[in-house]
Amino acid sequence: MNLKQCLLISTLFFNTIYASAQKLPYQNPKLPSEVRAKDLVKRLTLKEKVGLMKDISDAIPRFGIKKFNWWSEALHGYANQGPVTVFPEPIGMAASFDDQLLFHVFDAVSDEARAKNNDYKKKGESQRFHDLSVWTPNVNIFRDPRWGRGQETYGEDPYLTSRMGVSVVKGLQGPADGRYRKLLACAKHYAVHSGPEWSRHEININNVSARDLWETYLPAFKSLVTEADVREVMCAYQRLDDEPCCGNSRLLGQILRQDWGFKYLVVSDCGAITDFYRTHKSSSDAAHASAKAVLSGTDVECVGYAFDKIPDAVARGLIREKDIDVSVVRLMTQRFELGEMDKDELVPWTKIPLSVVNSPAHQKLALDMARETMTLLQNKNNILPLSKKVQKVAIIGPNADDSPMLWGNYNGTPASTINILDGIRSKLSPGQIIYDKACDITDDKVTETGITESGADGQPGIKATYWNNRNMEGNPVITTRVTGPMSLTTFGAHQFAQGVNTEDFSAKYETVYKPSITGDIVFKLECTGWGELLIDGKTVLRNGSWRLIPGRYVLQAEAGKSYKVELRYKQLNNWAANLFFNFGKEVSITYDALINKVNDADVVIFAGGISPRLEGEEMPIQLPGFKGGDRTDIELPAVQRNCLAALKNAGKKVVFINCSGSAVGLVPETGNCEAILQAWYGGESGGQAVADVLFGDYDPAGHLPVTFYKSINQLPDFSDYQMKGRTYRFLDQEPLFPFGFGLSYTTFSIGDAKLSKNTISANETVQLSVPVNNTGRRDGTEILQVYVHKIGDTDGPVKTLRAFKRVALPAGKTALAAINLPPKSFEFFDAENGVVKVSPGDYEVLYGSSSDKVDLKAVKLSIK
């Protein structure tokens, strides 16, 4: 072999070694994410591709693909986590009409999510709810106050929902020009979805007009896709015009991808694909359902896992592997966009430290937003704000001393919570306060506990045994006793008992109950986690999930007979552990003792309303006024109405704090109470915000994002998705409190507005200039609202919100608020062409402090 041949061989050898050391395209962070995804996907087997299409996505070590959880939540904080910052429920944040502050809230939420995820990665943890794809925001229209999940939305108006939703997405996903997304946000539930909860898996919505679809149900989704660049859309459970939404070719193909240009991924609601053949009966089996879903545009399946049958569907010719590739490229593109396939040093979000979680800055943000949610609905004789020099204040009601109530649903667990009682205590001395729960939220009876007359092992009360594992295995860590109603929580880093973990533990509670009387004995159990109640070895009640739900069992007891009572409990997942248990005879409530107790009070503050324990997603609630997480009646529960009436009859001045995630029919309460403050579910600082408003340290400025109806008699059937007669946009009756309404401790005067032009073309922007004057003696903020009505349009809304502006003014000052109205402010549905467009004609531009006609002025505009 000569020298030339040796050199040639050496060159070939080194070139081969060099080439093998080069990165493959999917490994190259300098390439576009979609290019990398396409290169990676072509290297995968069909089985591997399918494994990536489920919410718990398989790891594929040979390509460096890690396990990934598509399902995490961040509705108003990084959910199912603790400790984190818990902000107010979205319906409350909508009352702020402050999309700028909302952006900062979700910028903080995404920081906390990244920080927690960074910590999980360091520990080698990967489980559901711990990852970077968050299924938020919920931009469904809150069309009916009976819907239990309406609390998750930004109200009943398409424009307000759009503006708030865009801010949420931008805060979660990070700067649009960044190399990597901070998180992936998700617009849900697409589309025409807002209860009832009990029928969502089988209902077929087939009477929605094209106009309702395009002007009410779709605008927020369109805004999130075209303005906020949202990376995920979740398809809903129900059928729309005979096709399940997750297999709806018009919704997912024509509108979402073709008309709006959405190029990212669609995830199914949990179990929605299996609904195709189990409840909708639109597909014959899992193979057909999975093929239908993927071909329609659904890329990731949550729970159920019909997608496991995709290989079978391919083998049967129902779908081609190249169709699967389209979905897998979409989902892997987004994983590259997060940077989770690249080294941490390339991804700036991996540097966010755990110290940002519930930091002082985030706590302040939670308080600032909670204050802005506070919506004053009534203030007779200016009873509010209260003086801190008041002699005696009675703080009563079922929601006064309830911290979890403030967390809403789809929540995390805060490091600390200031409930309403805590907040009021911060304003007054102990000698000024009288506290009493007064009544339950719904029950008109109280339980005389039987625990005190129970005993096991010859000792009174309940024997409690704890294990530091979830299966009651091995040696217990401690055995102790409970001698009264059980109220246990790990909230605030509390232990159920000394030496017991705050996570990964289980317990058994045992006693023998020998009642002294014959009759009904009621057992009540609420827990987050898993609880099972046994009597004489037979299971009589199971309860528990990630939220607290009332559970009850009635035992027909015989006097003198012994009953062996056993309660088993397990802490599950990463949920905070809560356990509330009591049993005994129920006796009817009388208010005589309460009236005597508050007799010396100058004012009574009643914190009532409802609770996320009663309204929420598909809940097993069957109580008067509640069904499956929804309500069958919107009135305040009778026991609270009766309590307020008793206080009124006793001559007490009552300030009513209504905590709810939806509108409540408060007709009697407007007469029985001097003031009504709508406090929603205010998050970790909700009680402080309530107290700040009550005692004048913050001027209320919240305005209603939903109509407060007088009763359900003003509403169409809950299952009817037509908008006629619903919300302020189509209501032809006088509501109790209108959309956009809210009082202040100061007064405002809105002057005559001017348009920059009174005649414009269809593609022009016009400016509205409105003088706003603070005519009172306190600094305050008015929320200026601008509505549009097309003159002569008899089928459309009577008015519809198209702009708003928060105007902060010192006492006695005036400001000129300038609001731009772009062409889309005048878009309405054109039935002839089947599109939303700006049409020539005459329009009214209405402006004022609420949607009520008495609060609005008008100027006219012509479009040529």
TrEMBL record:
An annotated Gene Ontology molecular function: xylan 1,4-beta-xylosidase activity
Swiss-Prot/TrEMBL keywords: Hydrolase, Signal
InterPro entries (alphabetical): BXL (IPR044993), Fn3-like (IPR026891), GH (IPR017853), Glyco_hydro_3_C (IPR002772), Glyco_hydro_3_C_sf (IPR036881), Glyco_hydro_3_N (IPR001764), Glyco_hydro_3_N_sf (IPR036962), Ig-like_fold (IPR013783)
PA14 domain ranges (all copies): 457-599
Single Gene Ontology BP annotation: arabinan catabolic process
Family: Belongs to the glycosyl hydrolase 3 family.
The protein, known as: Glycoside hydrolase family 3 protein
Annotated organism of origin: Mucilaginibacter celer
Phylogenetic placement of the source organism: Bacteria, Pseudomonadati, Bacteroidota, Sphingobacteriia, Sphingobacteriales
